[in-house]
Structures are given as structure tokens and as C-alpha cells.
Amino acid sequence: MKYSAISANHNEMEGSTTGNESLKYFQIPNSHVETFWIVEEVLDGDSLKVKQEFTQERREIRLYGLDAPEVHLSRKMREDEAKSRIPASLLLQYGLMSLDYVLNVCPPGTRITLITELDNRTDFWLRDLAYVILPNGECLNELLISNGFAKASQSYYCSILPEYQQLNFLAKQNKAGIYLFTEVF
């Protein structure tokens, strides 16, 4: 019996990456990829608690390039209320919509991949910043913005920010997610 090696031709290799939108995240210069993380808790629309599957290390993750409404009355909620001129009680409802969306696409127990830009690792509160890649290859950060459950934000810079701003513009135009109820949040 002879072994005959099978190798993919150029078209097959090209086809396997075509349409894989998350590939761009793995190509961000000076970034670090970490696999085998599991979502332990969804805190709100832009923050997660995660655990490394093998070492049991735990982290709080803040998603790059976006901001979702708060789910608790807080100092930030008051700031958002003043900026948007939307009552805190309504902002809270928008925050719960964002939280519900994340719970649907990335519930606790979901295995994820974290990608961090090494030049911009933490936020003001020293939470780890990351792009979250879901098991189906989609990026949670991108899904939240394109579906209107978070807005693009430059509070925590990321190299994909211009694309996120474009996705945010389209979500607003299409009245997706929270934009169905308001122009700003």
C-alpha cells in the first residue's frame, strides 16, 4: 500500500479563508492570540469574566473599540445621561438589551479566543482589553457594533476602530438594535 499525499491547491487554500471576517483580527500587527478561554460571566454589553480552561486563570475582559450602555446606576451612567440627554432609566433598558444580546451569542460556558494588541493592553480600570473570537469564527466586538447593541468608541483605541466606526454608521442608518429606539446612546 502506497501513501499518496494530498495537498490543497492554491484555489482551495484561497477559498478556505474567503469570507472569514475574523481573519483580519489574527493579522493585527503586534498582537497576541490566546486560546482555550471560557466565558464565566457576562457583566454587561462590553465586559466579560473569563477563565483559562487549563490553568484556571481568571480575568475581566473589556471589549476593544466599543461602548455599550451600562446595566447598573453608576457614575458612568450619570455621565452618559448628561451626554446623550436620555434618562438613566431608559439607558438602563438599552444596557439590558445589549447584555441580553451578548448572553444570546456568547453565553457563559462559551469557548473563546482572545486577541490583544500589545501596545494597548488594559483600560483605565486595568481590565484586559481584547477582541473576542467566538467558536464560529465571528468577532463578538464586531457583532455588537454591526447589530446596534454597542457603539464604536475611541475611549480605548484599537487598530480596527475606523472599520468599527463605519459599522456603527451603518447600524445607525439601518436602525439596528438599540438604534431602533434612539439616534444616540
3D architecture notes:
The longest helix is centred in the middle third of the chain and has 18 residues, at 88-105. The strands form 2 sheets. A 5-stranded mixed beta barrel has the order 1-2-3-6-5. Strand 1 and strand 2 form a beta hairpin. It has helices spanning 10-17, 23-26, 75-84, 88-105, 140-146, 161-173, and strands at residues 31-44, 47-52, 58-63, 66-67, 111-117, 128-133, 151-152. 32% of the residues lie in helices and 23% in strands. Residues 1-18 have low confidence and may be disordered. By secondary structure, it is an alpha+beta fold. The chain has a single domain, classed as OB fold (Dihydrolipoamide Acetyltransferase, E2P), CATH 2.40.50. It contains 6 helices and 7 strands; from the N terminus they run ααββββααββαβα. The N and C termini lie far apart (67 Å).
Total number of beta strands: 7
Binned strand content: 15-25%
| Global shape | globular
Name of the level-1 CATH class: Mainly Beta
Q: How many structural units, i.e. domains? A: 1
Oligomeric state: single chain
Helix-strand sequence: HHEEEEHHEEHEH
Organism: Chryseobacterium lacus
InterPro entries: SNase_OB-fold_sf, Staphylococal_nuclease_OB-fold
Domain TNase-like: 33-181
Protein name: TNase-like domain-containing protein
Short recap of the structure:
The protein is of the alpha+beta class. Helices cover about 30% and strands about 25% of the residues. The chain has one domain: Beta Barrel (OB fold (Dihydrolipoamide Acetyltransferase, E2P)).
